Amino acid sequence: MIRQIPIRQLLPGMYVVDLHRHWLEHSFWRRRFFVRDEAQIGRLLEEGIVQVSIDTARGIDLPPPAPPPVPYHFVERTFMSRAERLKASPATISLGEERRRASRLITEASATVSDLMLAARGGREVDAARLEPVVSKMIESVSRNPDALAPLARLKQAATYATEHAVATAALIIAFGQKQGMAQPEIEKLALGTMLKDIGQAALDARLITKPGMLSQAEYSVVQSHVEEGLSVLEATSHLSETSVAVVLEHHERYNGCGYPYRMAGDGISVAGRMAAIVDSYDAMTSDRPYRPAISPSDALRQLYDQGGTQFDPSLVTAFVRTVGIYPVGTLVLLESGHLAVVEELHHDNLLSPIVRVIYHAARHQYVTPVEIDLTRKVGNHYGQIVRAESYERWGLSPLRWLPA
Fold this sequence. Notes:
alpha+beta, 5-stranded antiparallel β-sheet
């Protein structure tokens, strides 16, 4: 798509197709070119260029606008001062160490969720309070480094998808809530509800949940019943907050009223429910399912963004994109040099230039010695910026081998 923007919005990685000045009025001999760096933008400013047109199909687009403040239905939103946040923030540790801790935490959390689902299947008490220490550890992990827990939790085994999906969506909603500036008690309620949101699936035939083909209308109605089944189980055995209950009840509702079970719409869905719908859909799209393969995180974000205003709250989709990044950790990307790299870590103040690990030369179709590159650095980066996200499958690469761990 061609779009005209003011020069102040031009970014490295964009592809310029028109400078909107006569060629005699500036010294740039090419009308169409890839913007390499800030220095090149500075030269355009010096030449008096005030407007340019970019081709978003050949380069990056403008990042999504910052979302407006979102009201909360269940509790009054509270904020900590910056000094309080700094005082409360956990000690910094390396990303590698945080990923090792996160791996152990995922195992612990998955085991706890599995126990609760087995209890629900057997008609025993579902002690939701068992999840509270796990949720606290998850919040601490995401606070130390948001690029550790959620990307690792995206890696799942088919046999344990239900429990690992619960953990992955909880990790995502914790990061989401923190990015929104929500107070920790509210984040805890969100995460607890997210861990329990599919507990009602314990009452369904496992063959139906894992069916590889399309569901019939009757089968789909049975699957939809897991929402109210889950609430029945939890109401009978647990004392949950309104926020947690909202997540369980509303994570399949849709902004345009086409969701289930109550066909709620717009602001009639709680903020908790609207947030849960986004993280639930994103994690499902980026996971292998019996009826379709996983898609890349970037493609999933693009679908969410395209469905903002219909399926999902558009302001919350924009906020979620800013939470996980335009190129989320684990995304395979093509660099200007023609190399493929895996996103290792984000710069949350510069989402277009993450830290990446270069692994493959696309033109030569061969691996290279892996090297870590910080794309924000002006010196020592011989690979350029990101051109676009790529698919592991297209290049015959294994995501399990290269995803950060």
